[in-house]
Amino acid sequence: MAFSINHIFFPTDFSKNAERALPFAAEIAHKTDAKLTLFHATQETMDMAPDFEKTRDQVIDDSSGHFDELLNNLDGDRYSDLEISTVIQDGQTVTALLNQVNERSIDLIVMGTKGVTGDRNVILGSVASSVIQKSPVPVLAIPTGSSLDNFNNIIFTSDYKEGDLAALSHSTDIARLFHSSVDVLHVSDQKNMESEIKFRGFRDLVKEHIDYDNISFHHKYELDFFPTVSDFLAERLDSLLVMVRYKKSFWEKLTNRNLSKEMSFYSKVPLLVMIGDKSSTTETILEGSEKQRI
């Protein structure tokens, strides 16, 4: 089953980081013929203001002006045919954002990230991190300094979980849009027969069920996942990093690090977080490839 992108959601706080991320949303919308909705949540409690109508009108006017500035900075010729709408809502940002995502049948969220810590790591910010953890749809987080050249190569990290095959298939759908190369990376904490069998088994499964030629597989042996991925990225900074988010039990939340959240605070490259809990999608991919062989 292809990753169908019909509606893209772009939340913005009208910062420079958001402005730099908008061309990514516009380009994907352009390539997929998707609708693009720009969204701003205001923390103003308009209904509690002494002069409700005046406050509401001022907030709407200010936000509309900011939306116009954002859209005016887009390439008018390339994106003139896009179907673009804007939404303003008061309330807590993440809650309001996720409500809109559910109500509007959004397929992909694209948002800018902010902040640098130390000399090596980019922080998404609390809103983007919360959205990544709670969103029912994939989230593309764009850090400062990114360009569309990052989509020339896609790095897909896999731990061979049930939903990884479907998530990789969806990642190759994005790769087709940008003619990207795809690197599939797995990190094993031990070098033994079992880890090698899993690596080769997943590689063979991908080659059998996913029709994409420009894909390669990498197997690293280290105790710690994150520094290994960081080293891999250091040699491929012009890349899009893809991770798969899974729901965890209460015990696992207490005892295991949530790697997609950890990476959200340290990634220097665009980060696409796919949803890995839809095993039915994996079954559809397997059944589809079986029918093609018949």
Count of the domains: 2
Q: Which structural category fits the helices and strands?
A: alpha/beta
Largest sheet: 10 strands, mixed
Q: What separation lies between the terminal Cα atoms?
A: 18 Å
Residue share in β-strands = 15-25%
Tell me the helix content: 40-55%
> How many distinct beta strands?
12
Shape: elongated
Number of helices: 10
Give the C-level CATH assignment of the largest domain. Alpha Beta
Mean pLDDT: 83
Which regions are unreliable across 5 or more consecutive residues at pLDDT < 50? 115-123, 249-255
Assign the CATH superfamily of the largest domain: HUPs
| CATH architectural category of the largest domain | 3-Layer(aba) Sandwich
CATH fold-level assignment of the largest domain: Rossmann fold
- Widest sheet, order of strands: 3-2-1-4-7-12-11-8-9-10
Order of helices and strands: EHEHEHEEEHEEHEHEHEHHEH
Radius of gyration: 20 Å
Family: Belongs to the universal stress protein A family.
Organism: Fodinibius salipaludis
Protein name: UspA domain-containing protein
Domain UspA: 6-143
Write up what this structure looks like.
The protein has two domains: 1-145, HUPs (Rossmann fold), CATH 3.40.50.620; 147-294, HUPs (Rossmann fold, 3-Layer(aba) Sandwich). Helix 1 links the parallel strand 1 and strand 2. The strands form two sheets. It has a ten-stranded mixed sheet with strand order 3-2-1-4-7-12-11-8-9-10, with helices on both faces. A two-stranded antiparallel sheet has the order 5-6. By secondary structure, it is α/β, with parallel strands linked by helices. The relative contact order is 0.14. Helix 3 packs parallel to helix 4 and helix 5 (164-178) packs across helix 10 (279-293). Helix content is 43%, strand content 22%. Residues 6-143 form the UspA domain. This is UspA domain-containing protein. It comes from Fodinibius salipaludis.
